[in-house]
Each structure stands twice: as structure tokens, then as C-alpha cells.
Amino acid sequence: QSELKVAKLRLVRVVATRWLSRAAAVVRVWKVISALVLEFHADSRDRSNETATTLYQALFSYKFICALTLFMGVLSTLAQISTAFQRDHVVYRDVRMIIDAAKQSFRAIYNKETFVGTPEWMELIEAKETATAMMTDGPRLFEWRGVQKILVDETAEAAVKAGIADFAEKVVTALGERFPENTGSVMEALDVFNLDLVPKTREKLVEYGNSDIERLCAYYGASQTVKGKLFRRRVDPALVRVQWPLLRERLFDLKAKMDE
């Protein structure tokens, strides 16, 4: 990293169940890809690391570079959704906006028919096309982000694009199933439990959250059928209506202590 004057970053461990760790790991590899290629090439040449040759061949391949660049964009978007849910006080209206924006983005830039990709992807493709435009025969080589003599493989590029498009489509479908469009108002109603939105005066507290609680009771207090599978009601609406004023008072007291 010092030799190439690129960002001095440590690689991070990937946790299979966390989008944040995956995104962080991929982004860091992307940022220091030239240093990694140089290091593994040196280790392979000096035979100082028995896995260096395999790693060098993998990182230096056009297929890996394509996948790395595209997955960085995909995982960064998913990390934004994950981050929104991990805030101290989750604002579901904001979460809904982030999810909808992610779905629209995936449909627009990873579409199978009109694949565009992220700005980083367009930068990669521009570097390839600019360097190889005048090449009529022989291997097509180009430089990108300090990595030199990358061998173009159009078949690998097409395969990676198709794979990313399929993955993005599945993510959009999964987000739609997990957060259906018709439950947007239900998610927003969950903001009633957000201390940041609780009124500071008792005058405004009297009516606070009543309509949101009714929306939640209507959804969670009735059985739901999803894809032919029956989900029985989660709460007793009558009991919720009795308990809500007590919880509201508790939220008000907690809000007052936080503001002291």
C-alpha cells in the first residue's frame, strides 16, 4: 500500500449473516486491489506463500474484478438498509423510503435488458473500452485502478452481469415479500414507539398514537394469509387498547428523563 500510495486499510472479516461486514470487506478489497495484486504476485514469485499464486490468479482475473466492482455497489445499498434498522431509534418512515429507493435503484441499474451498473462499474468499462478501442488483434489488455495488463474476457463479463442481475432481481423480490407495499402504513405506524416523536407536553399526549395503534391492531390483530399460508393474529386488539394509555405514559416519562 505504501509503495503504490493507496489507502492504508486493514482487511475485515466477513460475517455470513451481516450485510454490513460483507459490504465493508468488499469495499476495502476494491480500494486496495492494486496493492493486493502486487503483494500476491511478489509472494508467488518468491514462493513465500503457498496460496499466493492461487490468490494472485483470482484477483488478477477480469471476472473477479467485474464481480468485485458490481458487488460493491449491491452490498453498499443493502448495508444502508441494514444500518437503518440498527439505529438507536428506528424511524420506520425513513426505513421505508430507503427500501423503496433500493428497489427502484436495483430495477434501474441492474436490469437484464438495460444493464447500467454503478458509477464504479461504468469507470471500469470506460477504462477497458478506451484502452482496447484500437486493438484489432492479439490479447486485449488494459489498466484499471493501478492494476496493469488486465486481460479482457467478454464471456466472463457477460456471466457476471447476468449473475448480478439475477441476484438483484431476487433481492427486490425478497424485499417486496418481507416489506409488502400494502404494509407501508403499518411500518409507519410503528413510529408511534419512537421516543423522538413522543410529545413533550401532556396536552398533546392525550391523542398521541391512537390512530397508529388502530392501524397496528387492524393488521396484527387479524389473521393474515400470505402465499396460501395462514398466519394467526399476533395480538388481541381489545387488550392493546387497554394497555396503550399505560405504555404511552411510560414513553412520556422516558422522554422527559432523556430531555433532562
Explain the overall architecture:
With 260 residues, the protein is mainly α. The protein is built from eleven helices and four strands; from the N terminus they run H-H-H-H-H-H-E-E-H-H-H-H-E-E-H. A hairpin with a 2-residue loop joins strand 1 and strand 2. The longest helix is centred in the middle third of the chain and has 25 residues. The protein is elongated. The mean pLDDT is 86.
Order of helices and strands: HHHHHHEEHHHHEEH
What's the number of extended β-strand segments? Answer: 4
Main sheet overview: 2 strands, antiparallel
Instruction: Enumerate the spans where pLDDT stays under 50 for 5 or more consecutive residues.
Output: none
CA-based gyration radius: 25 Å
The DSSP helix count reads: 11
Task: Find the structural class using helix and strand composition.
Answer: mainly alpha
The largest beta-sheet arranges its strands as 1-2
β-sheet strand percentage: 5-15%
Shape: elongated
Average pLDDT, rounded to a whole number, is 86
Task: Please give the share of residues in helix.
Answer: 55-70%
State the end-to-end distance: 49 Å
